[in-house]
Amino acid sequence: PAHATTPSPFSIPSELPPLPHIPGTEPDRSVLDSFRTAIAKIVAEALPPLTVEQVYTGVDYGKKGVDFTVAIPRFRLPGKVDELAAKVLNKFQPDEWIESVVHDKAFLHFTVRTSTLVRLVLNQVHALTHDTPSKEPEYGTNTSGAGKRLVIEYSSPNIAKSFHVGHLRSTIIGAFLANLYKACGWEVISMNYLGDWGTQFGLIAVGFEKYGSHEELEKDAIKHLYNIYVKINADAEQDPEVKAEAARWFKRMEEGDEAALSNWRVWRALSVRKYEEEYARLNVKFDVYTGESEVTKESQDVALKRLEEMGLIDDHEGAKLVNLEKYKLAKAVVRKRDGTSIYLTRDIGGAMDRYQKYNFDKMIYVVSSQQDLHMAQFLKVLQLLELPWANRLEHVNYGLVLGMSTRKGTAVFLDQIIKEAASVMHDQMRKNEDKYNAVENPEETAQEIGITGIKIQDMAAKRINNYTFNWERMLSFEGDTGPYLQYAHVRVCSITRKNPELLPLPAPSEIKTELLTEPSTRDIVFLLGSYPDVVKTALRTHEPSGVVTFAFRLSHAISSAWESVIVKGEQDVEKARARMWMYLCARDVLGAAMRLLSVKPLERM
Ligand code: ARG
Q: What ranges does the record give for the region Disordered, renumbered to this chain (predicted)?
């Protein structure tokens, strides 16, 4: 998705009443900023010494059919609310920005001028979708992050262990956040930090000697390594010597013994290749594949040494622990007795390496809430080390997924999850034979809709909530599901195919937007106008659910207008064209929201 780095191809027409500029607003990318500024100006001028900036922060979306509301008490002005409200009402003059204001208890409710709203919003959506210098759709983007760099780590599965739904959630939420920061002007480096190091690789090495096959490895490295891991783990349970041998092997790996490392290198490369294919199907791409193996020994040693100097390390039978009891974060092992490193220490050293390499303004870790303690310990240690960039790190967590299994049993691999989604969706689609036969690539379409179903279910609620995986519900075309969103998008796309005689549409300036007078079109337009705010809120909360909710609201609004605000069959050609343009703008914004969520909007199904 787009990067807001070039000037907007849209600007507020100069014939409209002039407005002051409020820092942080971008009317050329978000027209509602102008309407809010106009309201702030009205209130500030009526109620000195309030400034336009002060009032601006108090202009909220209204409830139930009200465009914007200002709560008077929040400004803590002397005098009665009723008198203050009367001052605003007395001074109010309707103009091309604001049509009316009413006073209701502590509130002032403002209605924006419909003709201006419709014209500006649709022109802005159109220009920022189709006329950008980048040639990429940019509606909804802003430049708040210009010049800043984000490193975001997500997915991070463990080679030779299962890719479980927790990793899938990290992948989905992480991909969304990466898109989101880009949409807000940040330079984004997305990073996959593989679990490719640790004692278990000693175990697999021992297992590979016993059970490994190069042929199987070539075929599907992820599955083969997993099978070896399961078998050798069982052996280790029986035989302590297996464990001891594994520990010795890993120690050799840590010491850089090439003979102990060569197989491991192959496993890793083949696993990454396989992962890349699967991520591509999810519409996810990483700029960097790194892993626990790549954390430098130097950084880990520096960190440990400093912790020791600071008196934060306890010795326990040769193992080293950092004592975080003071912060209610328990004690955590930072180096094992045999001198080998562990997960926590690698995270500490890894952060230092990354700062050196990327000089980031912010680094996000998208990791399950099951690792809250680990992440808190890790971040606390960085703070104790007094690294000046320690507060640039943030853990974005998420709850559990319950009950994820395929029809054949529990899923342990990503490709099983994708296959199952495609096949459940395919069965679903076949239930309607006529429609099914009209689909061009039923297999591909089923996979895409299936993946959309998984992603939307995953992002529909607050991140921290646990949710139960439910194939039937998430893959239904009814209710607020991924398939429904795809359907809504396909349906608006059909409008050009169904009305070829109206095409090509005239240039935006020639389209008679004043003919769009129905309340249901105004609802759609207002929602379109609010999309840049939805993006900004998501950046603040790191929650995809607001974007999902927006996509559903927009789909519902389109659906409500669809039967009454018709294009096909409308006798007045100018009106039919204006309506078509409005629906196409709605399509553009729905598509933008879906892409932000890493979903590929379909044009046919
Ligand atoms: N590989 C780890 C796991 O599967 C997740 C890594 C999370 N990231 C981190 N920097 N600790 O549990």
A: 1-27
Q: Are strands 401-402 and 467-468 parallel, antiparallel or unpaired?
A: parallel
Cα-to-centroid distance, 540 and ligand 1 (Å): 24
Q: How many CA atoms, within 13 angstroms, populate the side-chain half-sphere of residue 322?
A: 29
Q: Are both 277 and 212 inside the same structural domain?
A: yes
Chain segment 207-259, per-residue pLDDT in tens: 999 999 999 999 988 889 999 999 999 999 999 999 999 999 999 999 999 99
Q: Does ligand 1 come within 6 angstroms of the Cβ of 154?
A: no
Task: Write the burial class of residue 135 (CB in 10 Å: 0-12 exposed, 13-18 middle, 19+ buried).
Answer: exposed
* Domain shared by 226 and 351, yes or no: yes
- Would you state the structure tokens that stand for residue 602, as one six-digit string? 């379909």
By residue range, what is the domain housing residue 94? 32-112
Atom of ligand 1 lying closest to residue 367 CA: 7
Q: What is the mean pLDDT of the chain?
A: 95
Would 303 be classed as within a structural domain? Answer: yes
Please state the ipTM of this predicted complex: 0.99
Q: For ligand 1, is residue 447 a contact (CB within 6 Å)?
A: no
In a domain, 127, yes or no: no
* Element of type H or E holding 241: helix 240-254
Dihedral of the CA atoms 426, 430, 436, 441 (nearest 10)?
Answer: 20
Q: How far is the CA of 161 from the centre of ligand 1 (A)?
A: 12
SS3 163: coil
Q: Output the 3-class SS for 476-489.
A: CCCCCCHHHHHHHH
Whether the full predicted model's pTM is greater than 0.80, yes or no, is yes
> Does residue 161 share a domain with residue 87?
no
Residue 283, helix vs strand vs coil: coil
Residue with more model confidence, 471 or 289: 289
The count of structural domains within the chain is 3
